[in-house]
Every structure is written in C-alpha cells, then in structure tokens.
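Hello,

I think I submitted the coproporphyrinogen III job twice by accident. Can you confirm which output corresponds to this input? Input:
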Amino acid sequence: MRQAGRYMADYRALRQRYTLLDICRTPDLAVAVTMQPVDVIEVDAAILFSDLLVPFTPMGLDFDFIKGEGPAIARPVRTAGDVDRLKSFEPREALPYVFETIRLLRRELVDLVPLIGFGGAPFTLAAYAIEGGPSTTYARTKAFMYAQPAAWHRLCDRFAAMMVDYLTAQVEAGVQALQIFDSWAGALGRADYREFAHPHTSRIFTELGKLGVPLVHFGVGTAAILSDLADAGGDVIGVDWRLPLDEAWSIVGMDRAIQGNLDPTLLLGPRQRLLTAADDVLRRAGGRPGHIFNLGHGILPNTPLELVQELAKQVHRFNL
Ligand code: CP3
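Support: Only one job matched these inputs. Its output is below.
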C-alpha cells in the first residue's frame, strides 16, 4: 500500500527524471522502485510497483497523473454509450511490461520476501472511470448507478472480467499473493454496496480463488459494510484504523485472516505515540495466527523513513 513512493529520497530522485507512468512502463525502473523499501525496511513482502489505473489505457480510458491532484482521465465514462465503447484486451499483449517486471522481480527477490500483485475492485475502478479523478462525494458515480443501473452493471462486468484476466496473468508471471483494492467502497451504504458492488466483487473472488494464491480484500472506511465486504470474498480482509483491530476481526470472522490497521498519520510522529499505537494493534491481534500487520491505508508522502524503519523493527520485536 504505497510501500514505495515519495517518502523515500531514492524514489524522489528517480521521479526527477521519469514520470510515474514511465516508471510503471519500464521494467528495470519498476523493479528498482519495488526494491527500494525491501532493501532498507524490514518488510515481510514486496508489493509490485505499478498503479491501479494502469489497465485503463488499453480499455480506451487514457489518463495521466497531475502533480498535486492525482489521476485525471481524459474522457470519463458518462453515458451508457461510453460503457459500450470500452475495449477488451489481452493483458499479456497490452501490458507486457507489468509481467516482465514481475518475472524480473521474482529473480531479484529469491530467498528474500514474497511478491504481492494487485488490482482494483469493480466499484473503485468504475468510480475513477466516471468521476475522471479523485472525489470526496462520489456524486457522479452514485448518480450514474441510480439513474442507469443496467449500464452500471455492464460497466462493472467489464471491469470484473478484465481484472480476472489481468490478475490471472500476474499470478502466471509469478506473484505469490494478490491484493484487491476497493479503496472507495466505504462511500456506499450497506444496501447500495450489496446491490451495486458486492455481486461484481464476489465474482472476481470466486474466479481468482481457483488460482491457489492468498487473496487480500481491502477497503477504506468500511466499518459499516465490513461483514458485507468480507462476504464478497478474500482470504484476508484489510481494514483501516477506524475500528479497533479486535472489533474488526470479530465482524470479519475468526475463520479469516485480517490485515491492518495502524493509522498512517501516526508515522509522522511523535515516535513514542507511534510505537505505543503499534503495540496496541498487536495486542488486539492477541498473537492469533492470521494477522498481517500493516497500515490502514497508504503511507503519506512526508513520512520520515527512520520512523518506518523503527516501526518494522518494533513489530518484529513484539512479544505479547
Ligand atoms: O509500493 C506500492 O505500494 C506499490 C505501488 C502502488 C501505487 N499505487 C503507486 C503510486 C499501489 C499499490 C497503488 C494503488 C493505487 N493507486 C490505489 C489503491 C490503493 C489506495 O491508495 O487506496 C489507488 C486508489 C491508486 C490511484 C492513485 N495513484 C492515486 C489516487 C494517486 C495520487 C495519490 C497522491 O498522493 O498523489 C496515485 C499516484 C501514485 N501511485 C503514487 C504512487 C507511489 C504517488 C507517487 C508519485 O506521484 O510519484
């Protein structure tokens, strides 16, 4: 979850010379950036360097990253006609650099840590496609869902089918686990999640379940819909910091693993508050098997690297 990125000086140095998309599309650069945190932080896994929106381009949704604003899609999806114009693609032909990066990384990571691949859940991908960029209300997305439900479900079907192909190809290339980001699912109330997101997400998990790698299902602000989100699938459910970990785990069910859930803002300091909060997460996990310590969302750009390093050490040292 933004394990690599702007909080690292080595990454910022590379970004002086290359755009984010250049890095994603150049295997040697994507490998180098994936390895940056692995080399200096005691992490237990590497996450492929790419972006959630990389598969948008071959679907006919051109986009770029605008400095300080985030992603911007050139011609967002606004009508049923726009949905029908989206292209299908063969991931190995359209996005060869992603799979080449994975193959190179597996060689590089041998005997170090496993490699996690990732993709987006249909709701979050559809929200980007419709909004055209970040949003706080997801008003256009919800208006589209309510007013044009048939077109909405066609759009999500397209994203679900694409994700199954794309993530299958990631596993074939060598990733050892997959994380599905439904980052913005928390914008939905329970009934809407059930009607508009759950059917598409659960289809992805049913299909990907056949691949035999662990699947992590993550969303932000999901406290109100957590049991529904867990019901849609995932061997591991990723949660943010809004619920204490033990409460979240009892909602998810003890038969599943859980990932989380330190507030990434704590990494800005002070140090003692950070370390106490990390211990609290671990105490709530109670030493039960099936807890992956992680942040509740992505690391912030102005995070001091030293605190990230210290956090990882503290987690490894922890004894109940
Ligand atoms: O190291 C890693 O974690 C792997 C790389 C990774 C990136 N994006 C690189 C990136 C991963 C796993 C993602 C996933 C992603 N991308 C998500 C899902 C995770 C989440 O945060 O909920 C989403 C929603 C996106 C879309 C996206 N990409 C946004 C909204 C932004 C702008 C954010 C910002 O702070 O500017 C990006 C840009 C992006 N993707 C960066 C990185 C490291 C920022 C760095 C840069 O501009 O160079």
